Structures are given as C-alpha cells and as structure tokens.
User: Fold these one by one.
Assistant:
Number 1:
Amino acid sequence: MPTHTAEAARRRTFAIISHPDAGKTTLTEKFLLFGGAIRQAGSVKSRKSAKHATSDWMTLEKERGISVTSSVMQFPYDGRIVNLLDTPGHADFSEDTYRVLTAVDSALMVIDCAKGVEERTIKLMEVCRLRDTPIMTFINKLDREGKSPVELLDEVERVLDIPCAPITWPIGMGSRLKGVIHLMTGEVHLFETGKNFTRQDSTIFPSIEDPALVKRVGAQLLDEVREELALVQGASHPFDRELYLAGLQTPVFFGSAVNNFGVQLLLDFFVTHAPAPKPRDASLRKVSPEEPAFSGFVFKIQANMDPLHRDRVAFLRVCSGSYQHGIKALHVRTGKEMRLGDALTFMASERELAEHAYPGDVIGIHNHGTIAIADTFTVGDPLQFTGIPSFAPELFRRIRLRDPLRLKHLQKGLTQLSEEGATQFFRPLLSNDLILGAIGTLQFEVVAYRLKDEYGVEASFEPVQIHTARWIQAESDSDLEEFREKAATHLALDASGALVYLAPSRVNLQMAQERAPKICFTATREHS
Ligand code: G4P
C-alpha cells in the first residue's frame, strides 16, 4: 500500500461541537494527555486564558478574554493519528466554526448533563447535518446532579432528531456516581475519586453481575441500574456503524471530563470507529484520499499569529496524496504555481515545520494576503473543492472613513478581511457606500481594530437600514438583467463580485421574492 494511503487510513480528523461551558476545553486537555501530547493537566486551560502568548493577535481579545481563533492539535493514539480542530467558542464567530466543520471527517458533541441540549449545539448540529457528518456524543459532568440519563437520550433524539445508541451507561450520578457500564463489553468501570482513570488505573469488573460489585456499588443502586438498562435496551438502538457513518445515529458516552472519567472509553471507541478521510466533492469529480497527487483546500485564515511578522496563516486540509516539505502546487484560483515551502504542522498546538502531511492532516501556509478561504491547491488536475459556505450576515453597518484619502487602503483592507472570512463587505450598485456585514457585533470591533492596526485606516461604523442579505441568481441572463434594473436600489456586490440583495425589512424581502419568481434568493453561498 502506498505510504499516503496507509497514513490516510490511520487519520481521525474531528472537531468538538458544544455550547460554551459544556466542557470542550477540559475534554480536549484529557485527550491530549492520553495522546502524550501534554504532560500536565491544566496546560490547555492556562492557554485558554493566556492564549495571546501563542497565537492571539489582538489586545481586544485579551481584554474580552474570549477566543476568536481556532487551532489544530495533532496527537498519536493507539496507532492512529488524531487531528482535533478547535472551534472558536464565541457565538459571534460562528461562521469560522461552520467552516472548520467542512474540514473534519466527524464531530464529537459534548453535552452538560444538567443543561441538556443547548442552543448553540442545535445550530452546530444543523451544520453537521448539511454534510451528514458522523457524530459521537459525550454527556459530561456526571459528577454533578443532572437530568436522568434516559431523559438526556430522549432530549437528544427529540431536539436534535438523531437516534441514540448508548455505548456506556452511568451507575448513579452526582454524589452517587459509582461508575459506568460498557454496554458492548459488559465491563463495569468504577469511579473512585483521586484516580486518573487510564486503562491501567481503573478498577474494572467483567460484568454487572459480578458478586464483588455489590459491595462497591450497593445492591439498591445496582437494581435501579438493571431496571434502567432493561428499559433502555428495549427502547434505544444498538450501535450500527453504517448508520453512525451516515450521520443517522449517534453513539453516546457518559462521563466526567474534569475527573477524566469515561474519557478513555470514548477515545478508544472513537479511534476505532470514527471515519478516516473520505473522498471529497470537487468541481468535475470526487477526490479520493488514495489519489497520489497532492490536493487540499483552505478552510480558515488566521491573521497575525506572529505579531512581529504580520503574517497570515492559511489552514489547508490535505485531501489526497501527500505534502512534502518544499512541494510546489497550483493555486487554482490564480492559476499560479506556489511553493508551499515552510508549511506548519500543529503537533499538539506547537507550531512546527512540516516535513510530511497526509490526507486528514492540516498544514499552515504563510502568505501575505494572496490566499483566500476555499482556495484549492493541487499538483493534479486544476479542480476546485466545493462545499465551503458563506452565510448571509445578520448585522450591517455603513463604514465612515475619518480621512477620505485613505479610501484605497480601506478597500484593500476590507477585501483582504473578507477573503479571510473575518467579515463580509458590500458595495451598493447605486451609491458609494461601503457596507459591512457580520454574524455577531464583536466582528465589527475586530474589523475596526484590524483596519487601524494593519492598514492605518480609522473608520467608524454607523447603523444602516438593512435587515438581511440574499445572494441572487437566475437561470437566464435576461431575467437577471431585468431584475438588476428593477431592483437596483437594493442591489450590491460582495467582495468577490457576486450580486446581493440587501433587504431593508423582512416584508420587503418577501415582496421582492414574490415579484421576481424567476430569481433565486439564497441565504448561503459557496465560495468559488
Ligand atoms: P468549554 O471549553 O466548553 O467552554 O468548557 P470548559 O472545558 O472550559 O469547562 C467549563 C467549566 O466546566 C469549567 O469550570 C470546567 O472545570 C467545568 N467542567 C468541565 N468538565 C467537568 C466535569 O466533568 N464536572 C464538573 N463538575 N465540571 C466540569 P470553570 O469553573 O469555568 O473553570 P475552572 O476554574 O474549573 O477551570
């Protein structure tokens, strides 16, 4: 088997989706401990609060104490190579998160057992569904009182509309937490405070019927669990890998990330069953990871990871072949060949120079603004990967420039920031306004800060009467031309030159749609 095919088969590339505070950071840290990537608990946590030390570029971010950046962590586990793509937690940066989800092969959903399914998880799940991404579920914080396990499964099934296949089942909860049963092996793993719960460190009983277990757990609790299990096994679904891989069933684990309990059972199952890189859609055809020619697409651009060098790092997901240090690849959008010289890999978030990378891996390419979100690089056919979305912004501002002579700088800055996906900007057909669109208000602050810091442009934002944006398409050019004339006052071009309808109100949008039945109004757009 060629090296890149064997290497691809052992890759597991995923992201964690959760509502803030469910325990994503804590769980990430435990994974890294198991992967030998960090030695001490607390390292990820402290990075979270002092993140500016490694990757953050903005004082704004420090002031806010939130993370607007996402990173990639690679670690080996059990013969596999796991790539964990972090997603920014703050809701204002959801667009970034959505794009990270286009670069993974599966997702892990973390749910707080006391809170159940929360709003952001619902949104992220919708995004996963667009690509039928397989999802595993970890129900966290079992050391606290929460909803009953049956209730939690029911909530996931009802709210997220995905059948659950419990793989572990808790024995007690909160102060009564005694352990979990692995429903596929029958083993009981005890929860004992002060332990680290690695395979070596856990007390494991072969079955719930083991007589010695009564002493440890208590007859009453065991009876309760037996009853619960009889109920659950009748009502829930056995694990079916095909359904899981099709995004039609989620295996569910219970545990406590902060206590490292139930985490290794999850990780063992994850590396065994989660999918390796699959073929990806591109213009013309699908691209298989087994193809020898290197190819990949950019799903994220992060500016100023190193403030001294003002660099931008484009995060590229490798889709086929292999990357070797110094490789030259075609940058399909510009038609130019680029030497991807000093790409970075992200071994447990240390930035290192990559010698090799294989399908499923992410490399970071330095550039000065030539690379945009959704760009494809390849040494094979000049194809373009598809399926990387832009979402219609929900908030709009008009930009006012303090010094009109800086207009060129402003335009350059806005073009680059929208290529990075940091914001979207629109130029109305009939005015000289520059309109900025965002998903969350914090994005405007980021843009204002970066315009000043990087482009020397002082700009302020003022409210503008725009409710929403829709990209415009029509089957025939003449229909489009007619609409363009009729609706010109509400039309604008986005940074890539695509036509957009800026609706002042919901009613206006509805009327425009009714009056122009041959025109297609879309709320998402694929980068092309
Ligand atoms: P996030 O990345 O999803 O936002 O969540 P994070 O891991 O930061 O966890 C949010 C809070 O929940 C943290 O507490 C963390 O310690 C706690 N937590 C995570 N897993 C568990 C668990 O299994 N049980 C319990 N009881 N708590 C858990 P914090 O007070 O915000 O931070 P810290 O001071 O504890 O670090």
Number 2:
Amino acid sequence: HPAVRLDRVAKRYRNTHTYAVHDVTLDIAPGEFFSLLGPSGCGKTTLLRMTGGFVDPTEGSVLLDGEDVTGLPPNKRNVNTVFQSYALFDHLSLADNVAFGLKRSGVPRAEIRRRVGDMLDLVQLGELAGRKPTTLSGGQRQRVALARALVNRPQVLLLDEPLAALDLKLRRRMQVELKQIQREVGITFVFVTHDQDEALTMSDRLAVMNEGRIEQCGTPEDVYERP
Ligand code: ADP
Ligand code: ADP
C-alpha cells in the first residue's frame, strides 16, 4: 500500500464559493520524503490537513496504509503533525513536552528517557532539557515541537513549513538533519513549503501546486529538468 493515498480529494470551505483544492489524486510511498510546493494560498496546507484529519474533504477519500480514514479524527490516524505555530505546554520542561505522548502510551520510563534524550540531542537542545518553553526562542520552540512529533515514531509525519521561523543557518542545518532523521527512522514525511530550493534539496518526490491543483509531480529532476 502507499503510505498516503489521496483519491480525487477536493475541498470547499464553508461559506466560500471556490474550491481550495480541486480533484487531487496522489500516492505517497512508505518512507518517502514528499513535498508539496507552491505559492501561498495554492492549497498545500488544506491538502495536508485533509491527510491529517483536521479538515474533511468535500469530495474524495483519504487512505493511510491502505485503510480509508476519510472522516476519522486526527487521533485515530497513525500520523503526527508539526505546525507552523508550535503548541507546547508552557508549564512542562522541554523533556516533559517531548515525553508527553510516550508517557500516555505507557512506554517504559528508561526507554522514554533514552528516546527523549536522543531526540533533544538531535535537535541540539540536549543541554536545555530542563528548561520551560517560555524561556526559548521561536526557533528553539519549533525544534521542540519537531522532537515531540518524531519521538512517537508515527507512520507518517506531516510538516507544515516547520523550518520557516528559523534563521537561515539553522534552517540549512535542520534541512540536513531532518533528511537524516527521515532516512534513519523510515517514516514517511509530507512536507509543505513555498521554498523551491528547500523542496529540491530535501524531497524524494514533490508535487508543484497552483490554484488548488497539482501541476507537476515527480522527482526533483523530473520536475525541474522539464522545459
Ligand atoms: P497554502 O497552504 O498553499 O497557503 P491553503 O490551503 O492555506 O493554501 O489555502 C488555500 C485556499 O483556501 C486559500 O484561498 C485560503 O484563503 C483558503 N482557506 C484556507 N483555510 C480556510 C478556511 N479555514 N476557511 C476558508 N478558506 C480557507
Ligand atoms: P497558511 O496556513 O497557508 O499559512 P494563513 O497563515 O494565511 O494560512 O492562515 C492562518 C489561518 O487562517 C489558517 O488556519 C487558515 O486555515 C485560516 N484561513 C486562511 N485563509 C482563510 C480564509 N479565507 N477564511 C478563513 N480562514 C482562513
């Protein structure tokens, strides 16, 4: 099965007259780093939200690992999401923020400590594990959100411009790290960006969107070597 299959999905938001997404059909393979690229307002986030269950399609269906999940809420899907705006628990330390989901699923304490430690090291926040999110910069908070989403090892990770708030240097480093993480853990990444270079350097395949439709889809070479 594809990790994600969007079958003729379309979305028209309530009280709007035009479709934000028109008739999109797309398969994303297990373990693939797949980007949705296109200008603001072209429907990338809407497509991602339909995959995650935050928005229901007006038409069509969403399948995850061969299972039709159309209409199921986010917590009934084996996906995790990192949003543009991180939502962390301000009263918990970074480590407890990252550990939150693991504790709820009953993972043994020693394993939680190890996985949280490894993940915080990976996003270069190991030294700050005991700090509260309010004492961090925006970029640091976004890295905590990333660590928190990855530590659960979801089958699919949805990322909505997760690096947009980071300064250029850190952004480059995180691009490389994200790619490494994705290869190591074998999780399918669906990555929304309006940055063409970012999509080119990171993606196994990408879809170029415009006005709610996919205009091109393929490897970076397929998409950019075409006249
Ligand atoms: P992108 O992520 O590519 O910037 P979006 O999916 O956010 O695009 O938006 C696609 C279109 O849907 C835009 O015209 C946007 O204004 C509209 N839209 C997005 N969210 C909503 C919403 N909650 N209600 C109404 N229209 C929306
Ligand atoms: P994006 O998700 O593409 O960054 P924005 O930052 O423009 O979108 O929008 C912020 C929030 O407002 C999102 O939750 C989006 O769904 C919503 N939104 C966007 N366009 C509209 C719209 N035309 N009507 C209502 N809500 C919208």
Number 3:
Amino acid sequence: MLLETRALTASYGQFRALFGVDITVAAGECVAIIGANGAGKSTLMRSITGVIRNEPGMVLHRGEPIGALSSAEVMKRGIAMVPEGRKLFPSLTVEENLLIGGQMRKVPGPWNLDAVYELFPILRERRNNSGTALSGGQQQMVAIGRALMSNPELLLCDEISLGLAPVVIRDIYAALPKVRAGGAAIVVVEQDIGKALAVADRVYCMMEGRVTLTAKAADVSRQQIHAAYFGEA
Ligand code: ATP
C-alpha cells in the first residue's frame, strides 16, 4: 500500500479532532475525502504531511512508519501537499514559486517547468508575475504545479475548488487525470460531492473526526452519502 493510516488520532490541545481514522491509498489510485465543515479532513491531511506529528505507526508510507516525521521529511518521501489557501510565497514570481517545489525533492520524473506550463499554459504567460498578482484560480494552478515539481508519488489536494468560479474549477479538475497519467496517486479533499465522485476511484466520508463511509465512487448512492455526511439514516 502506498499510504495507510491506522487508528489515527489527532488533537488540538484538549480538543480531539480525529478518533481512529483508517484510510488506504494504493499506488496510482485517486481517493476522495468528503465531509462537512469541521469533519476533520484538513486535520487528516496535516497528520499525513507531518504538520501535526503523531505516533510513528499511525501513518505508513509503503509499510514504513512516517507518523512522527517532519513535513520536509514526508515531502522527501514523495508525498506532496497542495494546501488549503494555496500558501504561495508572495514575494516570488510564478516561476520562482514553481522552482522551489523542485528544490524540495530532486528525483527524475515527468514533472518539470515545461510540463507544468503545458498542463497550465496561462502560467507560462504569467511566469514573471508575482504569485499574489494572479487570480485565485491561477494561484491554485501555481500551488498544484509547485507540488508536482517534486515529482510526487502522492499528491494531496486540500479543497482545491474552494472559492473558485465553476469554469476555473473545471480547468483545475481537468488537470488531475493528466497528473495520474504521470503515475501519481491523488487524494482530493472536497466539499463538492459531485466533483469528488467524478474524479475518484474510491471515496471516504468523514463526520466529527471519524470515517462514516468507505465506498467505490461508481457504486455509492446519494442516499448512502447523505447518511454518512449528515449522520441521518
Ligand atoms: P473545513 O472544511 O472547514 O476545513 P475540515 O473537515 O477540514 O473542515 P478540520 O479543519 O480538520 O475540518 O477541523 C476539525 C476540527 O478541528 C474542527 O472542529 C475544528 O474546529 C478543529 N480545529 C481545526 N484546526 C484547529 C486548530 N488549529 N486549533 C483548534 N481546533 C482546530
């Protein structure tokens, strides 16, 4: 298994946000994590990427415990994050933001500046603009491109459609199959259930820090999702 969490718990001080979360992601797979505000999706991403440190065995990469590693160490293993809110380096240009992603992990693979500009052609036009001078959608493309520059085995995308216009969301989601074609597995955290089901092989629904549904995206019914999402039978 490429990535696995085992009885993963996480807390903010006294507040428990995750109560024993088990998920798996196979190599090349696309998994969606859905759930309402506050369900624990971002906390799960932070726990996988080392922003929140855990007991080592709560997160496994290719069977090896990585739960206690730092974010930099996790990224070096090929797990890259597109964070909620994009978090570009404001004083750097688009191209510099992308190049930083490549500096974090230097391994051969399909992604480099040219490949990212082919994926999102508008970024080539804007390569010398500062990251923050871009539209929200373009900033999101830079954040995805920056993560891809490390040639990850696993790309974690936290709410990449949040606050963007439908036409921009469509363009961004259209890039994900190309990312998979490059060999990476993808986890998308998404509040838009339709988007999640359209792109993913499997879906996990979370509620109040627990997984309430695990299903193949092609098989799951709206009723099952509704029950898992809102806790109603
Ligand atoms: P959203 O869609 O709003 O990002 P989410 O499913 O990603 O929701 P989390 O952000 O993981 O949910 O939050 C899970 C719980 O942890 C929530 O109750 C939230 O209020 C709490 N929480 C999140 N971040 C912190 C923090 N830094 N300090 C304290 N509590 C937090």
Number 4:
Amino acid sequence: NADAAVHFAKMQGRNNYQFFTTEMNHQASQRLHIETELRKAIKNNEFELFYQPQFDLKNNQLVGCEALIRWQHPEQGLVSPDAFIPLSEETGLIIQVGRWVLQQACMQGAKWISLSQTMVTMSVNVSVRQFRPELVDEVRSALMESGLPPRALVIEITESTLMHDEEATLVLLQELKNIGVQLSLDDFGTGYSSMAYLKRFNLDQLKIDRAFISDLPNDKDDAAITSAIIDVAHHFGLVTVAEGVETPEQVAFLANVGCVEGQGFLYEKPIPVGVFEEKYFA
Ligand code: C2E
Ligand code: MG
Ligand code: MG
Ligand code: MG
C-alpha cells in the first residue's frame, strides 16, 4: 500500500511536471506570438489614441484630457492597453510605441488648444522603461514638432518609476521640469505610496487611484484615506485629480474635501479623437 502511494505520488509529480512544461511552452510561444504581432503593429500603424476628458469638480469645466492607447488589431479588433503594455515594456518595444504616443498626443493637444483658445492640458502615460535620459529629447522634439506649449503637456508617471534608482530619477525629473512640462503621479495609493515622495520629488499633480474612489462616499476608510491624500497633496502644492469617478455622490464628496479635478465614466469614457473633437471643440 505504501509502495502504491509512492508510485501514485511519482505519477502525480510526473504529470504535474509535464503539465507545467506544456503550460510554460504554451505561454512562451503565446508571448512570442504577441511580440511578433506588436512589431507588425508598430510597422503598420495599428495603434490609436483615445482621449478621456478631465473636469474641474467645482464648475464642471473641461480642463484637459488623458491620452490612452488602443490597439486596432486586424483580426481581434480593439485591444486594451492592459493586454499589451506590460509585454511592450518587457520587450522594450514600449520605447517606440511611447515615442509615437508622445508625438501623436502633442499634435492633438496643439490642435485642440488652437480650436478652443483655452489651455487644455494633454496627459500622457510614461512607463518605467521609457523613463531614461533619452526621454528628455523625445519630449522636447514632440513639443517642437507640434508647437504644443510645454505647460500643456502633463507627463504621468507612477510610484514604481520613482522607486527606481532615486538619484537618476531626480535628475531626469528636474530636466523635464526645466523644459516646462508638468509632472503627475498616477495611480497614487496603490504602490508604496510613500508620502516622502511628495516631499522629495517636485511634482505638479497627483491622481488618486480609482481603488479609493469607487466606494465613496459610504466607505469610511476610503473617505478618510482620500481626504488625507488630498490634504497632503495640497500642502505640497499639487493639483489633485480623482480617477474613476462614476457617480454624482462621489463628485459631491470629492468637491467637499477639496479635490480639484475629476476623470471617469460619469463624465465620459475614453473616446476616439473625432468623437472628442465633435463633442468638446465643435
Ligand atoms: P491609467 O493611466 O491609470 O488610466 C486610467 C484607466 O482607467 C484607463 O484604462 C481608463 O479607461 C480607466 N477608467 C477611466 N475612468 C474610469 C471609470 O470611471 N471607471 C473605470 N472602471 N475605469 C475607468 P485603459 O485605457 O484601459 O488604460 C489602462 C492603463 O494602461 C492605464 O492606466 C495606463 O497605465 C496604461 N496606458 C494606457 N495608455 C498608455 C500609453 O500610451 N502608454 C503607457 N506607457 N501606458 C498606457
Ligand atoms: Mg494615467
Ligand atoms: Mg491611473
Ligand atoms: Mg493604471
């Protein structure tokens, strides 16, 4: 009986092992496949930017928008960034994709400022992998080619970017500030959320992660966290933006605790460029 048990365990182990390697091979080939597709996408211009508006919570005025990438896949249709940005980062393809995003968003921002005759801002997400010395020149070129005023460009980074090699990061952030662009800390509260970051780095804007917004105003813990974040952010002179605003009750709460701007499905989902233009700048 004991022998049978050992034999069974070995069989199990072997099967698990086989299953595991098959699964890994499958994953590896899947990744390779997506990587090949991504290279084709870059070559064939299959990316598109959607735009989500941001509003002043007090007077409901449009203050700017965030550019959010989509992949118009020839067979699969619209693919969301969560499905390809991580792999783009791992493979380094994000460098090329990110450069395109910057150029495209700056062009659009410049056009919208001239259409509306107001200083609407254009926010662009920049991932850890893009956050290297070359980024400074990429930003400078995108601004020059588009004619977008530097103040109108908001570079969104996350806490993971700030954790990474602090000294070099400080230098890079300062160089970006010297160009005149604004810096925003995206998804605040989900990473290490060190309040010390707000003291150490010279940022302009803080985006409170949707995770804290979704159960407002009923969740007392999230209410306390949100208003504490807002107070600290304002102490450091940052503009606060609530992400993922979906209800009027959330707006009421946020406005009451002094949050300045909001972005979310209550106002608008991310929409294609033509739709945005027709709705906000016609
Ligand atoms: P993010 O920068 O935090 O962008 C906000 C995400 O929340 C967007 O998802 C947006 O569609 C979604 N969202 C906005 N309002 C609401 C709401 O009220 N409710 C809910 N449930 N969701 C809302 P999306 O467009 O799928 O983008 C996901 C992430 O992909 C972004 O998170 C960002 O980290 C990354 N990403 C998007 N575009 C780019 C890009 O051009 N470059 C890089 N590096 N990353 C990008
Ligand atoms: Mg963002
Ligand atoms: Mg975010
Ligand atoms: Mg995010």
